[in-house]
Amino acid sequence: MKTLLYTPKISKDGFHLWMAYPACEAFALASLGYMWLSKIAEEEENLSIEQVYTDSAMTQNRPEALAFSMSFDFDFMGVFEILEKQNIPFLANNRTEYSPLIFAGGPVITTNPEPYKNIFDFMIIGDGEYIFIKVLDILKKRLTKSETLLELAQIEGVYVPNINKRVIKVTEVLNKVIYTPIISEKSYFKDTFIIEVARGCMNRCAFCTASYLNLPFRYYEYNKIIDAIELGLKHTNKIALLGAQISAHPDFEKIMKYLRKKIESGMNIELGISSLRTDAITPELIKTLVLGGQKTSTIAIEAASERLRKFINKNLKEEQILNAVKLSRENGLKGLKIYSMIGIPTETQDDIDEFIKLAKKIKSENKGFEITFSFSTFVPKPQTPLQWAKREDTKSLEKKQKYLEKELAKLGINSKFSSAKWDYWQTLLSRGDDRLTEFLIEVYQNGGKIGAYKSALKKYDIDTDKFINGYNLNDTLPWDFIENNPKKEFLMNEYNRLLKRIKS
Ligand code: SF4
Q1: How would you label 299-309 residue by residue, b for 16+ Cβ within 10 Å and e otherwise?
Q2: Ligand 1 mutation pick, 111, 314, 384, max ligand atoms within 8 A of CB
Q3: Which tens digit of pLDDT belongs to each residue from 146-160?
C-alpha cells in the first residue's frame, strides 16, 4: 500500500521530467531527499513527472529531462542503467540539441562533481530544495538546450561544466520541515514516516562530509516538528527522526518527552532515531527508544584510541563510551552496535590493540548485553580536513580486519567489516577527477564487479596516485572550483592543527 501525503498536479502537456533514482524502488522510497524533491516537482504547475528507478518498467514516454539523485559513490551504475534503457548516450557531448537534458544533485555531486562532469549537462551543488524550483522554472520555458544551459549557469549552486568556472555551494535556511511524502510498504523502511529534525553537525569530525558539507548546523522549530509528527501518525505508527546530530536540537528533550507521553498514554508508536551521539545518551532517551520498540541501537566511536579520536577531532573520552553502553543496558536496550573506522592516518598497532582493550572492558562491565563491533575502513573525502590524506593499503587493512575479528571472537564479541577492496574503489571515485569518465563507463559495461574496476583501470592507464595516496597541501584539487564555507585555507589549518595535536 502507498499513501500519498500531497496532491500531485497532473499536467499532461507539461514539461516531461523524470525524477530518476539510480537504484531500486525500495531505496528510492526510503530516500528522503529524492522523495521530497519529487513532491516539489509534482506540486508545480506545467510539469509532467514520472518517478523512475532501476527496476521500473520504462514507459514509452520520452522525457525532456532526467534528474538524478546521487547519494552513494557507486550510484553511477544505476545512472548508466537508466540511461541505457532509454538509449540515451552516456556522454553529454554525444547527445544532441534534441536529447533530454540529464542532470544530478545529491551528496556525491556536492562533494565532488568532477568524475561526472562529462556525463551530466548540469549539476546542483548544495541543498537542493530551493535551487530545484528555480531550475524547474527554467526547464518549463522549453528553450533550446544551449539557451537553457546558459540560463541555468546564472543560478547560484548550479554547475554547468561547459560554462561555469566557479560555483557557489548553496546552504539554505531550513523552514518547511521535510518528511516522507509517500508512505509505502515497498520502502526499504517499510511504512515509515521519516522527519528531518536537523541538518548537519557542529562537531566537525575531520573526515565527515555530513558535517563539513552542511555547516552551519541547522534545525527546524519545535512546533513544526510536532506538526510533522502528528501528520505522520495519522497514516502510520512508525516514526523516524533524521539528522546527523539530532540531539543537538535545542528542543530535543522536549520532542522526546512529547513522543514518550504519547506512547505512555497507550499510543502504539514505533520510534527510530538515525544515530545516537555517544556523549548525549541519557536514561530518558534510551527509555523512550525502548518504549518505542527499539531493541538495539548504534553508537559511533570512530576510532578506538583517544589519540586517534583526538586527531580526527572526535573528542570522545573512554569514560563516555563506557557510560553510553552502561546507560543503554541499564535502561532496557538488548544490545548495541559500536561503529568505528580502521586505517585512519597515523594509526599504529597500539591503536588497533586499544579496540581489544576497550572491548574487554565493555564485556566485563556489561555481562549478557549483546555487543557488535562494526568497522569500515577510512575513505578520505573531499571538502574535509582529511581530503589530502593517504588511503591505507588494502592488504594491510585486511590484515588488521582479520586480527580484530580473531581477537574479538576470543572475547565472544561479534564483529562486522566493510570490504576494504570496495572502500579502495570508493576512495578512487570520491577523490577522482574527469579522467575517470571512460573508466566509469567501462566499469558499467563490464558488470561493475571488482574485476571490472581492475580491468578498466588497466585499459585506460589512469594515474591514480593522488586519488589513493593523497594530495599535497599545495596541489590544486579537482573540486577547488566549488566555493564552500569553510574554505580550503580553513581545512588546511585544521589538518595541520590536528596533526600537531597528536605530535605534542
Ligand atoms: S559527530 Fe558524527 S555527524 Fe557529527 S561530525 Fe562527527 S561523525 Fe560527523
Answers
A1: bbbbbbbbbbb
A2: 314
A3: 999 999 999 999 999
